[in-house]
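[User]
Protein folding is very new to me. Any chance you could explain this protein sequence and its structure tokens? I have pasted everything here:
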Amino acid sequence: MHIILISKDMLPASDLPVYGNRSRCMPNLGRLAAGGTVFRNCISPCPSSAMAYSCVMVGRQPYELQRETMESQRDVHNDQSLFAALAGRGFRTAVVWDKFWTLKGRHHALKIYDQGTTFHNLDIYHEIGIHRNGKTGSLRTQAPGTSPPLTQILEVVEQIRSESSDTFIWLHCPHILAGHSSIGADLEYFDHILGQLMERYDRQHIYLFSDHGHMDFFGGEILYGKTMNQPVLHVPLIVPLLPAVGPATDQVFSSVRLKELILESRAVFDPFVFSINQLPHQPNRVLTIVEGRFKYWFFKKYQAEGLYDLEFDPLEQRNLLLEEVYSRAKKRTIAMHQAITYTAWEEAEQAYLRLRRERERVWNDPGLWVNAKGLGKNLIRDGIWNSLRDRFFPRTSASGRWGSTAAAQQCLF
């Protein structure tokens, strides 16, 4: 048996036609979805790759992540991981990804593999500003003789398949595949890769998902990392048909349950779905919990909360916990119940009480000394000057196209 798990970095569900995007043409993805089960409301545990995969591949909840989980340089195998479970069943396990992950991202250090897992580092990614500041976005010039990403992927997949009758491959495609120069420009090419793999694998052995999405200018932000809004956390998940679930489900689902899907062909729907953006010692740690239509936020830095009804307010702009809201235009406050017409206040209150209890159950704070060290590391990593500049000297204008002077992004929101 040959199983393949296909993922693409920084791919939000909203980018795909299967999830309602009408600007894309991805027929192979449509064929994959038509023969399987689509989780329409799958939530990532973390808005960054390393943290997300540390949860997903081990079946670990994000609030269980500790610094030691992320910073090991050895013993990267984990007896509780998906890789170890499949190896125990006689599968040869392998990872196929781009060389950026291992050369710069330290992702070999994640404790999510089996001791026999092999790693194949391909020259298939296109470097943009997310990797290095100041990139122009022009097409990367590959070294002479370098094959296109599709050729490299198919060659290594065929090699792995030929070496054993039972294989498990995790194919992880980068933010942007080589030959494309902007976020999302490679989705049709990714669909072509998917089509070629569908010719080589039984449909019942193909799984597709993403670690996290991106903001796409939602609230003025472009990428991801500390942000916890739905464009980052709502990810695609398409698996072989699950008769007990049907061709699609709108029920909230956490991708930390991927292990049960692959090992047992079983979907586990948790009553609460958790996501966290940073480790316990980091100052900008945010916890979100989703239960049905309600999403709860807890901000470590401010010790503050938020509650949003995603059906009523999919843009997460109306914090239902606010008694009053301030109008910058009118320079005055107004009661929230007068500012919005909302008919589910009692239901929202009961949801808040349940979600707050869950936060109190899972939240952990490492203490003053560890928090202070985390704050110091954050200042060094983010850059003291950058932090001061953004706080006290924000840009108000920037050079624009066609000789214009453009308003800076932060001025618009």
